[in-house]
Amino acid sequence: MSTNYLPGKPQQLPGHNVSLQNHRTKHFKFSVQDAVATISLNRPERKNPLSLESYAELRDLFRTMAYASDVHAIVLTGEGGNFCSGGDVHEIIGPLTTLDMPGLLTFTRMTGDLVKAMRACPQPIIAAIDGICAGAGALLALASDMRFGTARSKTYFLFNKVGLAGCDMGACALLPRMIGQGRASELLFSGRGLGGEEAERWGFYNRVCTPEALAADAQAMAAQLAGGPTFANAMTKKMLQQEWNMGVDEAIEAEAQAQAICMATNDFHRAYHAFVAKQTPVFEGN
Hints:
Elements lengths: L28 E5 L2 E6 L10 H13 L8 E6 L10 H8 L4 H20 L4 E5 L2 E3 L1 H8 L2 E5 L3 E3 L14 H9 L1 H10 L2 E3 H7 L4 E3 L4 H13 L3 H13 L5 H16 L2 H11 L10
Parallel strand pairs: 2-3, 3-4, 4-6, 5-7, 6-9
Antiparallel strand pairs: 1-2, 7-8
Helix pairs in contact: 1-3, 3-4, 5-6, 9-10
């Protein structure tokens, strides 16, 4: 047996210390700076629609985030004054009309896997939304942990406009939990646009920014999170997701276990000693 993984020795498990600093993507822009990853959908001439390839590459990137040692928060945005117009009509919607049922199910499971990957990735995700946020784009926003928008933005859950149910990529589970059953029902049945100020009143947006300040405000929040106790932040995200399917007693027990784990981290001890010394803690994520 290799001594590299014996108890009591510093452990570096294979595949669990991935750097994304120089990671290259084909179907959207990606960069990492100061532990904040920025994903920019960059087909502005079409309002940043998703293709089959970008769906899959986004899914795989968010899965990889679980092992990224140099990413502590994520900003998801779009270029050219729009967030995302959904699935590309010519590259996705048209071909879907030619598929048989197994092919259709393969596609819908793949798009759902992107949302699962976003919810399972430990880093907080901030969606910075301007302009059009429609269809699958609305689900990217919904799957994020926070949403910063603009007053001029419009979010559309427009599946019924093309003869489909509103239950796409987890919308019927995620949206009612965020804005309430009645409001979610209205949006999913009507497909109408949700303006930025209304989105903030309803709790869909955390904050409404000016278009000029949107990117900077989202990056500032991501930097704040990236400088915090990242192990504890990941635990918070996990519990927010996990406790949806728990009763109150189960949730309290799960949180007791989660908090005890966090109390065993070095970051918890760093915070205590910094408090005693009247200093600001410097968290290292362990």
